[in-house]
Amino acid sequence: MVTTYTIASGKGGTGKTTLSVNLGTALASFGKETYILDADMGMANLGIVLGLENVPVTLHEVLAGKAHVSDIIYDGPEGVKVVPSGISLQGFQDANPERLRDVMKEIINHCEILIIDAPAGISRDGVIPLAIADEVILVINPELSSMVDALKTKILTELIGGKVKGFILNRATFENTEVSVKKIREVLDLDLIGVVPEDPNVRRSAAYRQPIIIRYPDSPASVEIKRIAARLAGMEFDADSLKKKKEDKFLDRLARSMTKRGD
Ligand SMILES: Nc1ncnc2c1ncn2[C@@H]1O[C@H](COP(=O)(O)OP(=O)(O)OP(=O)(O)O)[C@@H](O)[C@H]1O
């Protein structure tokens, strides 16, 4: 069975692309056949984050009827498949967002989980990803404006017949001045899926064009993102056992290199 998640927020810059890339990569690393699709057709960032901004064909060309879906599936880390959007304004103008549904139908023939990175706002191309997913996940920063925009996005999603699964609180610093998880739960009447802390390694890994879960796997944000991915995959997650497995592998390698004989 295929599950399609749209990662949305309403407000811009909450961490949708960061979470789409990292959740997709984590799910692939758990052995799930996972695709990530950049539905932010005007301000595409997903390709940039993964070093795929110069690929010859993108979602723009498919939505303009000039290429096939099979032409725009690229390899990402851990075997995740990536469908980037283009960065040219002309490409954006030529793309017909109504075709996104057909693109999705084709992609879900090949995968178990599809993650759609939605644009900010409630423009026409922003609304379609909310309607076509099985479940929408809202990314909220711990501030009032982010919560209010997420509420608008929740109401809009339900109005157009979509379903909101819950919310991820991203960039949490756990300071007193932050809007709390409890408040967001009350106001949005939604389940909490996970809390990802503010973590400077998110930005560092972006500079290396790598997901944080690959570049800094033990960083606090990585651990929480993997926990959320495991929840989406219906799997048990035990950060300590993952760490232990890594240590065991290191010790195995060390033992092998110590016992290797030079001929
Ligand atoms: N947990 C985090 N800790 C620190 N920085 C973060 C975290 N999550 C995201 N960021 C940073 O916040 C910025 C915005 O993130 P991102 O591009 O993922 O947001 P977005 O919602 O996709 O933005 P847009 O609405 O413009 O598409 C980036 O600079 C990213 O590195």
Which distinct ligands sit in these coordinates? adenosine-5'-triphosphate
Give the low-pLDDT segments: none
In CATH, the architecture is 3-Layer(aba) Sandwich
Q: End-to-end distance, in Å?
A: 52 Å
What oligomeric state is this?
single chain
State which percent range the strand residues make up.
15-25%
Could you give the order of strands across the largest sheet? Answer: 3-4-2-5-1-6-7-8
Number of strands: 8
CATH-defined topology = Rossmann fold
Q: Tally the structural domains.
A: 1
- Shape type: globular
* Overall mean pLDDT: 90
Question: What helical percentage do the residues reach?
Answer: 40-55%
Largest sheet: 8 strands, mixed
Protein name: Cell division ATPase MinD
Domain CobQ/CobB/MinD/ParA nucleotide binding: 6-212
Binding site for ATP: 11-18
Pfam families: CbiA
Short characterization:
44% of the residues lie in helices and 16% in strands.
